[in-house]
Amino acid sequence: MPAEVTDCIQKHCPVHPSGSVLAVAQNRIREKSTLRDAGLAVPEFREVTSAEQLRSAVSELGTPSVVKTASSGYDGKGQAVIHDPDQVDEIWTSLATDQAILEQFVEFDCELSVVGARNSLGEFVHYGPFRNSHTDHILDVTVCPSGLSDDVNERAVDVARRVFECLDVVGVLCVELFVTTDGRILINEIAPRPHNSGHLTIDAHKTCQFEQQVRAICGLPLGNAEQHADAAMANILGDLWNESEPHWPALLASDVKLHLYGKAEARPGRKMGHITALADSIEDADKNVRAARESLLNK
Ligand SMILES: Nc1ncnc2c1ncn2[C@@H]1O[C@H](COP(=O)(O)OP(=O)(O)O)[C@@H](O)[C@H]1O
Ligand SMILES: [Mg+2]
Q: Domains plus CATH for the chain?
């Protein structure tokens, strides 16, 4: 919903998350500037509004670098990796935008996300960190716990807590993070809502992210966010349809949970549902969830 609409509704009733949080999350320049100005670490970036500006930003940040439309991008849409300055004109035209952000290409060990919830009393609970792997810039598999050190997990949660406080967030919000090869934690982006990486909380946690959203925005006490089993979640993309329906019986014969979103049309790259596996270790959960997804192709 455009932030202007929430600003208007806010005059008549409480709106959570507030229009100001949405405005920050809906524009990548505003998002990264706000977080950086609050003392939080983000990848180096430049605002660009023309092919010329993109060219000079690429010469400053070097290649590879990542250009993204300032607004309306999701699941890798509206972004491109620039490997060579010669690609600038072609890529700028393909983005079809008048405002974009150029980011340094972050060399990361892994990507994490922290989904949290905060109510109007300032109570805060969080899940994770979740450890996420992406394919073609789209979330593919999430595991929780992360399998990383306590130090990294604590720093990730601390960054998320600071985001909630500096934006005065009421509701559920996800903070996507890079753990760089030199051990820093950088914020990639924020999403002021239940997040794809938090879908495993439906099966693996005492209170899921969707229930926390209702509790948080209604001013109710937040639920217990404890995890009751190690878990892995794999997305089901439209690519798996491939002219006919995936083979659901094979998947349902295995010990996983299937969640479909009821979307009528399957398209490549479109998120149609997800699978969650619970196990005694994230390694087993990860293996089982991938095998279950693979079984959808068995005819
Ligand atoms: N600056 C960057 N350096 C390296 N990889 C990146 C960078 N920005 C994005 N990516 C990769 O692309 C994915 C999607 O980008 P993101 O900014 O989160 O957009 P979206 O809104 O599509 O999720 C990230 O999760 C990451 O894997
Ligand atoms: Mg993202």
A: 3-104 (3.30.1490.20), 108-295 (3.30.470.20)
